[in-house]
Amino acid sequence: MTHRDSLGVEQVIRPGEINWMTAGRGISHSERFDGMRDGGGAVHGLQAWVALPESHEEDAPTFEHYERAEIPLVELDAGQGRLIAGTAFGRTSTVRTHSPLFYLHLELPIGASVAVPGGYSERAAYVVSGAVEWGGQTYGPKTMLVFPARALPVLSAPVASTVMLLGGEPVGPRHIWWNFVSSRRERIEQAKADWTSGRLPLPAADAQEWIPLPEGP
Question: Quick one: which H or E segment has residue 124?
Fold first, then answer.
């Protein structure tokens, strides 16, 4: 998949790599499956949105690419994973973040158990494939488990499973409309106007397609 944005970045992302874009006061981007439509192939991935603290909401936009070798490998008795961002299991990712958090891609073999990292106010697990057991219940693919703040959750895998573990500290309420996120509703209205008027430029290498705002409030 090829990323292009209004900063002039054009970056191919391959399995195991990370494209980390910080929107800040505004950025436009595209993700294109260059060559895949002609040749075919499967695409499997996750896109995560991380809210910025208010003190960084109007930062200049940035884009950073991380090769697979730059992402810390996490070896656990339960299985193996990659620490995409933040700090967990005694490791810290090289990905630059703006608030305390963790985001982990974990591969669990059949019968494995793993304790969800503590020390964060909010924690969750997303089952990508396979299943996990917790609290006497089994949860299958495309399920998000959100844990109570003081819980000490331990997940068990009755089958080989891919699980994303994530969490962090709250940064305050956020408003989301289409692709715009802000702590202030009036800032989203400004973003709508900037997009409609063309004040937010399109990616220099992919400026032929402009998408209008969706209808609705």
Answer: strand 122-129
Q: Please name each of the domains of the chain with its CATH number.
A: 2-66+184-197 (no CATH), 71-168 (2.60.120.10)
Q: pLDDT tens digits, residue range 87-146?
A: 999 999 999 999 999 999 999 999 999 999 999 999 999 999 999 999 999 999 999 999
Tokens 């891919």 found at? 162
CA distances in angstroms from 152 to 117, 118, 161, 194, listed in the order given: 8, 7, 20, 45
Q: Which of 101, 103, 6, 2 is nearest to 46 (CA)?
A: 103
- What the block records as the tokens of 197 is 């008027």
Cα separation, 62 vs 77, whole angstroms:
37
Report how far residue 36's alpha carbon sits from residue 163's, in angstroms, rounded to the nearest whole number. 27
User: Are 166 and 117 a contacting pair, CB within 8 Å?
Assistant: no
User: How buried is 133 (Cβ within 10 angstroms: 0-12 exposed, 13-18 middle, 19+ buried)?
Assistant: middle
